[in-house]
Structures are given as C-alpha cells and as structure tokens.
Amino acid sequence: MQPATPPPVVPFLRTAAAYAWRLLVVGGLVYALFAVLGRFHEIGVAVFLGLVITALLRPVANLAARGIPRSLAVTITMLGSIALVLGVLALVGEAVAGERTTLVREFREGVDRIERWLEEPPFRVNPEALSDLQAKITQFLSDHRSTLVSDAVSGAHHLVAVLTTLALALFTAVFFIHSGDRQWAWFQEQLPRSVRGRVETGGRAAWRTFTGYTHGIVLVAATNAVLVGLALWLLGVPLAVPLALLEFAAAFVPLIGSPVALAVAAVVALASKGPLVAAIVVGLIVVIGQIEGHLLHPLVMSWAVRLHPLVVAISVIAGSIAAGIVGAVVAVPLVSVVWSVYTALRKARGAAEDPPPGPAPEVAGPPGSAA
C-alpha cells in the first residue's frame, strides 16, 4: 500500500516561510551587531563623531589644500575648528559667570513669585504645602549627601570616558579628512571582485546621504539657535547664550530635542521674568516648531533621504530605548543611510537586469591583454 501523498503547500505559505527564515537571519545579525556596539559603544560613538567631523570639515580642507600641502591644510582646519568650539564654550562660561549674582537673586525672586501665583486663583495651593515641599527637598539633599558625592565621583569617571571618546573621534577624523578616499580604495581591494561594484555603489550612496543629513541638521540647529538666542535676548531672559547653545545641541534629536530645550527656556523665563514672558516663550516654541517642520527640514533635508515623520519618530524612540541619547541622535541618520543604500542597489540591479536596447558595448580586457 503506497503512503498517502501529502497535500500541496499553499503558495502563500511557501513564500511566507521563505521570507520568515531570511528575516530571522537578518534579525540575528542586527542583534549581534547591536550587542557588539553595546560592548564597545565608546568606539562606535567615536567613529560616528569622526564621520560627522569629516562630513563638516572635509570640504574646508579640500578648499584649503588647493594652495597649500594637504597635511598643512588638514592641520589648520582641525586647529581652527577646535579653537572655534573652545571660544564658544568660553563665551558661554563667561556669560554664566558674569550673570551669576543676578541669576541667584532673580531666581529667588522668581520662586517666590511662582509660589504667590500658585496661591492665588485659580490654583489656590495651600502655602503650607509649598513650605513642606521645600523642607522635603532640603531634607532629601541632606540625607542623600553621600549618594550625591558618589554620583559626582562617578560623573568624573564618565567625564574621562567622554574626553577619551572625543580624542579618538578627532584622531579618526584627521585620517578620514586627510586620506579617506585612499582608505576606502584599500578596503575595496580586500573584497572579492564580484561584490566590489555593489559595495562601491552602496558606499557612495551612504556617504552622499550621510553628508547631506549632517550638513542639513547642522544648518537647522544653527538657525534654531540664532532664532532662540535673539528672541530670549530681546525678551530680557537671562542665560540667552547658554540656552541658545542648548537649543543647538538639542536640535540633533529630531522632533523631540528642540521642544525640550525650549521648555527649559520657558522655565527659566517663568522663574526670572514671570508668566507673561514665559507664555511668549511658549508661543516661540510653536513658531519655531512650525518653521523647522514646514520650511527648514523640507528645504535642507532634500540633500539627503527625506523620511516620513512617523519613521523619524519611531527611529528616535527605538534609538533612545536601545542606546539612550546617543541612540536617539544616531537613529535617524542610520535609517536614512540604510534606506539610501537599499535604493541605490535596487536601482543598480534593475539597470543591470534591464539594459537599454542597442548593440552590446565592448568590454575591455585587463591591461596588457591583446585586443
């Protein structure tokens, strides 16, 4: 008796199974990649910062190298950039130090003003509750003084790690700016000939997208910082320069960073200038958000891959869950680069599978071969 023939597999299930095991393999590779990056995240952050610095400063070094040797051009570009950053930080420190006495007085008066405001209608908060809250905060600080000191010591350890990462990033950027093209050519030579074309196509698309995104986000951050700094200065809000610098740094986290930085500015305005100025700063949050979302991002991000806002939001949240603030910063450019590489390889494969009509082009042999 012959065994019963099994029923045929539905084509849909066969296709789903074929894609399922591929997705499992890809998911395992992605998990392994993030596990390695999590173990050596300082190196990954340093290389990422090195690429950002390269994207920003390589055009300047190329321009300077037209008249002087490239090594000297790279040295001047790096030293000038470091001097500019240190000068901005010194300006911020001087502004904070110069306004310290005034800030302490204004914040004390601002806290008293907020307490009186909360005691009045419509809030009608019990004054004893506010006094109890201040007493509890003071008691908490005194009871956890040792914990705060240990956290400060741990913060010093993190400061050393940050400085080491920055030093490695600068060291990496120097070599990328000076001879990044030769390093890329050497890397391609180590690959099999059958994949060099696809790697070249994907690499060019990735770098074009990354540089476009970097230039665009820096321009957006600088524009936001200038607008916020001017507005806070005109409103007489203290710490206008540090708050503008905070807005510049926060703009590198799309959709989330800029509102958070402006919320900090609103709190400072509330404590120092009262609810009216704070309400104006809140209105400033709405205006700058509209300018950024409807003018700056569509304009400057046309240099890179423009992602749907939902994709950006999911990427930022997933990156922050995976790697904190660093993941939130890296997520969007990473997704943009991956999508651009996929698009470029798909177009190249389509062009290879569907060549234009006409006679086949002649293929040249290796150098030195007979025709």
Structure description:
The protein is mainly alpha-helical and 371 residues long. The chain has two domains: 41-190, no CATH class; 195-352. The chain is 82% helix and 0% strand. It has helices at residues 11-39, 41-64, 70-98, 100-119, 127-143, 145-189, 193-235, 240-250, 257-273, 275-300, 309-353. α3 runs antiparallel to α6 (145-189), α7 runs antiparallel to α11 and α8 runs antiparallel to α9 (257-273). The longest helix is centred in the middle third of the chain and has 45 residues, at 145-189. It is globular and about 80 Å long. The model is unreliable at 360-371 (pLDDT under 50).
How does the SSE layout of this entry go?
Blueprint: H1 11-39, H2 41-64, H3 70-98, H4 100-119, H5 127-143, H6 145-189, H7 193-235, H8 240-250, H9 257-273, H10 275-300, H11 309-353
Helix pairs in contact: 1-2, 2-3, 2-6, 3-6, 4-9, 7-8, 7-10, 7-11, 8-9, 9-10
